[in-house]
Automatic annotation (TrEMBL):
UniProt-annotated binding residues for Mg(2+): E67, D82, I84, D85, D210
Uppermost EC category: hydrolase
Keyword list, A-Z: Hydrolase, Magnesium, Metal-binding, Transcription, Transcription antitermination, Transcription regulation
Keyword Metal-binding: yes
Transmembrane segments: none
EC code: 3.1.3.25
A biological process from GO: signal transduction
Descriptive protein name: Inositol-1-monophosphatase
Length: 254
């Protein structure tokens, strides 16, 4: 599969500058509620339109699935894109949001990139070739004790008014860990595990476009990527990503 990772970085960084231009003019951009507790801005739409044009133009053999524009015909091999992950944070002028671009070929994640324009941090990975942040190789943390670990999560499930809404799980885990975070961009949360800034992340009720790129980056950095029972794989509705060393300690609490 021949893709140019350096050209993809240029495209994704350019998409990031489109997002940043809207971010700097927040007072003038339109923000709409697409569902309860779920927002979209004109920046999401503009970034996705740019990425769709550039990616399908360069690689017509691949389909496209974007959070805002949906799926094209070809879905066996496709770009899986979240143009702005962390839209609510973005709309409030907070910095923790990202662009997420993954290439899935016949069900396997082959390439993933997560770009955080406000920090100018570009995370990427190609299957079997390691994970990188701003050109430097990254690896998960060496933390072996859950009691000394920092964990992060999200509450997408609250949008669906589920009874298993992660609040009880969060309380169980918060009582036996050293630090807990809810940062607001699942794609970037996954990269923080890859970059040893967080030791474990979990969330329910996400979508593939939230996690496709970040899960590959985490896995290539040495993370475990499982469901809440420890079954290996990318399960957007129930994803648990750890540094591997605390997995056995956290599983009984999930
Ligand atoms: C959201 C972020 C957030 C997660 C939400 C997602 P969006 O993505 O990833 O961290 O908790 O469930 O929907 O909606 O801003 O693209
Ligand atoms: Ca998202
Ligand atoms: Ca989004």
């Amino acid at each position: 599969m021949s893709i140019s990772t350096s050209d993809l970085e240029r495209v994704i960084r350019e998409a990031g500058s489109i997002a940043l231009n809207h971010f700097k003019a927040l007072k003038h951009i339109e923000i709409t509620k697409k569902a309860p507790r779920d927002f979209v801005t004109e920046a999401d739409v503009a970034v996705e339109a740019f990425l769709k044009k550039e990616l399908t133009g360069r690689y017509p053999q691949f389909g496209f699935w974007g959070e805002e524009s949906g799926k094209t015909e070809n879905q066996s091999s496709r770009w899986v894109v979240d143009p702005i992950d962390g839209t609510h944070s973005f709309s409030k002028g907070q910095y923790f949001w990202s662009l997420s671009v993954a290439l899935e070929i016949e069900g396997e994640m082959e390439f993933g990139a997560v770009y955080a324009p406000a920090f100018d941090d570009y995370y990427w990975a190609q299957k079997g070739q390691g994970a990188y942040k701003n050109g430097e190789r990254i690896h998960v943390s060496s933390e072996t004790n859950l009691a000394d670990a920092m964990v992060s999560t999200g509450f997408a499930c609250l949008r669906s008014y589920l009874t298993d809404n992660n609040l009880a799980r969060f309380c169980r885990i918060a009582q036996v860990t050293a630090g807990q975070r809810r940062l607001g961009s699942a794609a970037l949360d996954l990269c923080l595990v890859a970059d040893a800034q967080v030791d474990a992340f979990w969330e329910q009720e996400l979508n593939l476009y939230d996690v496709a790129a970040g899960a590959l980056i985490a896995k290539e950095a040495g993370a475990t990527v499982t469901d809440f029972k420890g079954n290996p794989g990318i399960f957007p509705k129930q994803i648990l990503v750890t540094n591997g060393k605390v997995l056995d300690q956290i599983l009984p609490l999930m």
